[in-house]
Design goal:
With 208 residues, the protein is mainly α. It has helices at residues 2-10, 15-24, 29-39, 42-50, 59-62, 70-81, 96-106, 108-115, 121-135, 138-154, 159-175, 192-199.
Length: 208
Amino acid sequence: MLKGALALIRDPQQTDSVYDIEDGMKHSAAMAVATRHMMAQPEIASLAAERYLATTPDIPKLLAYPSDSLGYAYAKYIDTAGFDPGFYRSMAVEDDTSYLLLRLRQIHDLWHVVTGFATSVPGELGLKAFELAQTRRTMAGILIAGGFLKCLLQTPDELDELLDNISRGYRMGLQAKPLLTQKWEENWGKSLSEWRSELGIKLFGGIN
């Protein structure tokens, strides 16, 4: 965890550092609270009991879906950004906590698409605020705190935009139904607008 924290300070864009910290805190009291919060929701508890994990999405196949579908929107997002849909660090599923963390890693980019938050720093932290509201995930709070401190010290002129995204994300997360309950990969053909309507995702203007 210390190695990850030091590396993250040197380079906030270093994804492995985030995983190092989270892996180190997997058995912390804070993560136990987050797990209890998520497992208190029957649909999440059911998903965890099933240990539901999807295979890596086939991006070329999804690009052939209707242009208004979640599958197409997700594939276009991944393809345009040049991302690897299987980029996340895997972990052995030993208990509910490790399952929930792995599933959250697996669907991170899907949440970007559904919530409308971009991959800019303000966008990432907006999504982390959304995630914090819905899951109490420890790493989400750490990244928000780190991003705020970095902005305050290095780019204070961007503080308003950053705080606006964090505020919007948290409010969106409180208002929306739990995104973690969904088996997105079994409903790629459903339209993105339908997903948002069913889940209570209300986009705010100017999300970055």
